[in-house]
Amino acid sequence: MVVATAAALAVLWTTAASAAPPSDVWDGESLEGFFADYLVDSARTAAWRDPLNFTWALDTWLREHGVPTAEDHSPKVSGWIAGARAGDDPRRKGLADFLEAKPDTAAGHFGEAAAAGLARLGKEPSDALLAQVVRNLELQAGALYQAEAYGEAAEVLRQALGHVSREAAPQRWADLRDRLGLVLHTQGRESSDPAAAQLVREALETYREVLTVRSREELPAAWIETRERMATALADVGDLDGAVLAYQEILAEDPNNKLATHDLVRLYHNRFKDSGKAVEVMGDWLNRHPGDAVGRIVLSELFFATGRFDVCQTMSNALVQATAGIPVLGHYTVVLYVYEAASLLALEAPSDAAQVIREAVESLAAMDGFSRLEWSFEGTWSYVQKTADLPRREEITALFEAAAAGDRDRIVAGLAKVAETLAKGP
């Protein structure tokens, strides 16, 4: 189950990227605006680390501005970075650091830019300068979030909010409060401290405040965005029924909301342990959206977790062939190999399972840029543990333990060991 969805890149937090097309999208100011938007948006996920996501976002932005995307634009991006490094603008230096995956130093530069702006404000008060200060603080918080310095990111956002009045700028205030909720929520989820649960509750209250501005009637798209994060927080504090209700409200407003559908399926599968209900929701979704490749991968997993091993094996094999050679789907190809092999084991075909596992190892070795498998096997684990009569349960357990190891080297070593054990026979 997807932990982290690529759909987070689809919604930008600011209006710069949707503004009227500039006369030259490659001029320094226009490109700088895109980089800043991308940083603020991608700070919600680990997507910023993946060059494929950056390329996708840049191509989308260029198409919106009438620029052909078939050519390689990386030299122009590199040229912008070199120019930023040679200059003395700390904001541009921060964006250059961000583009080179250096969030710690990027945060320092954005902080320097914000501090300089605040010093100027004391001498030359202006709304335009104040807006720049708030934007630089927002960028600093985004970089700190990417550096996993969540506590510092929260403090910077609170500082930014100190310069934004709800009465004077309600939407800007809501944007920053929403981002603060995300930071607190993430900090609470990532911490092993029992007191961290309070951070998630604080995030929930923050989301509720945001929804007093982002109303369902007046701002349905923004309402959905915050309500979805609120649903995740409700699940994290154990209010599963509240989370289901939130997702159902989102889907009533937008039946084609992919993120809410996938999250609702994950909730049924991983938390309620109701894979049958998850199949029902995902099946209905795929009937209406047959082109959702990730949804089909999730459905393949659900078929395994409901004991339909033959269907899972057939579907996983077909999807492996369909996704082969598509770099952005590399993570999912590995997942499909694992479920195909697990199904073959449950069908008492260990030799075929061993061959599939060897193919998975070869595929992993050939994937450039693959570092970690971002997929949750929680619902599957529950099924395997409670199904005492599951054929070859020990080998299947070892297979999923290997797949859940996280980083590529450990996954490869674990899968190779399972294949070797199967090759030896009983």
Please characterize this protein's 3D structure.
The protein has 426 residues and is an all-alpha fold. Helix content is 70%, strand content 0%. It has helices at 28-42, 51-64, 74-86, 90-99, 103-123, 127-146, 150-161, 170-190, 197-211, 220-236, 240-253, 258-271, 275-288, 293-305, 309-323, 330-346, 350-365, 378-386, 393-403, 408-424. Helix 1 (28-42) packs across helix 6.
Descriptive labels:
426 residues, mainly alpha, Serine Threonine Protein Phosphatase 5, Tetratricopeptide repeat, 20 helices, globular, disordered N terminus
What overall form do the CA principal axes indicate? globular
What is the radius of gyration? 23 Å
Let me know the largest β-sheet: none
Mean pLDDT: 86
Poorly predicted tracts of residues: 1-23
Strand tally is 0
| Total helical segments | 20
- Relative strand content: under 5%
Q: How do the SSEs run, as a string of H and E? A: HHHHHHHHHHHHHHHHHHHH
Helix content: 55-70%
Structural class category? mainly alpha
Question: What is this structure, in a nutshell?
Answer:
By secondary structure, the protein is an all-alpha fold. Helices cover about 70% and strands about 0% of the residues. Among the domains are: about 5-165, no CATH class; about 290-425, Serine Threonine Protein Phosphatase 5, Tetratricopeptide repeat, CATH 1.25.40.
